[in-house]
């Protein structure tokens, strides 16, 4: 492919992207250099891709894909302007300064030594160019948020009341941002440069082997013929694909182009179809074994092995998808939606025979982490296994071209996360060195008057607001610094506190008015934003409720005796099914008003751990079921006939 001037595209940026992936695969095998070198090199490669591929107008990661990547996933070289080259040089200068003066930087006394003029200039350049890289790839929300925190750090002595603090001088601020482990090169960027980028590369290799089509066909074979089958296909396939993508918007863009039109052709209202895909795609970030990029940051901040975090998150993720699956089922029964015909779904045996071998790398990844390998090393070996296993079938085989494109795709999907992590590091530094975290903890404790429910509600609202229009990783990092300490002061188990704010950083993707996953799905389905957003909230209601219950009942996080865990899981599963029934007005038949209220109450009682609440919930549920069996209402509407062309294609 050529640009308007006749010059071939795909050379410079493609090499930088593939080189970035190869660098991280190499250090996974050979061992990582010291932290500052690794994180600096990671950021330098990210800067190269962003400033060479993304125009100054920005437009986010979707715009990067449109402008910088060809249809096959290959990077196309957008000829950089002189301004872009100058910015790239300015962005790389602070990193090369660190590499050239590493001995001095490692021996200097942070916050005590005064900054030399050259160091001050390098610090200013790095902060400004990190914000510009974030703006180009993620939009203006995150850079503006970081600037607000910087202004807070500088304006401390002039702020009113409890917000006042001693203030940071410009020299101290840029010392923290540039040289300290609480700044740009802090924990978030460290996690991006190790765990996150390796898992994203692993997902890119799986995607190039058409594993997404395997997930779609598996879902179609398992649930396609049941009522509302296309919606259930979206639920299962997006949940599976989310384990290797970790991004709600990316998941919508990969699956939604097929599932949303398919749902609409089989009778789903347009805004409901888009909402189903948005909710299903958002849940991928909480679905083990991979979850989203922010989960690796969570493991680091919580001081737990990543595999332990995945184990704790497993049951809430199950409840999320079980509730969505049943919501689709009850909505289909209520409105008379049918499933696909037998000839429209692939046979399960044929799917497994043709491409089932591509499940092996995912299972191997789980086994390696379970056996105690670091997530870093497990992702490396699983990626190599993808290459070997894919060669067993011609339809999945990765040749040199496919591997090159997978390397480029891994870098493409990493740059936004890295930019968000670098920006979030600045915020962490400001929070740590101004005492804002302590002030916020005191504020929440005073507002809630020591009661947990108001504190959780306030944390939920703050989490959704902080997550609006912001990538999950950055939203979670800010919430973890500001909100988690307050919850732990009130006696919440640390992992429950971290997962609570993690969930609401994710749920913001489907919460109006700024709901990025809803925007993406509504764009594909050409549906109204508010109608789609409200339908998404109804479909994803469990995501708003379950975090409250695992705070009060940590057995849902697999904490406690086996008896407590089994009882909590069984009652919670029954509860989320009843919750879906109550929200959609259908159980065995359409629910009367009193039955709907009783079903909702039973759901909340069952989701809450405890044998007393379980008995009351079961009694209410039994009364509703008995009422429906003894006096059934008229049957739901006849099945809506499908429009032509609703067959699920085998592969994409």
The quaternary state of the protein chains shown equals: single chain
Total number of domains? 3
Query: Distance between the terminal alpha carbons, to the nearest Å?
Result: 23 Å
Helix and strand content put the structural class at mainly alpha
Give a quick account of the main beta sheet: strands, pairing sense, barrel closure: none
Helix content: over 70%
Topology as a string of helices (H) and strands (E): HHHHHHHHHHHHHHHHHHHHHHHHHHHHHH
The total of helices stands at: 30
Q: What is the radius of gyration computed over CA atoms, rounded to a whole number of angstroms?
A: 25 Å
Mean pLDDT: 82
The residue ranges in which pLDDT falls below 50 over 5 or more consecutive positions are 1-10, 59-77
Tell me the strand percentage band: under 5%
Tell the overall outline. globular
What is the number of strand segments? 0
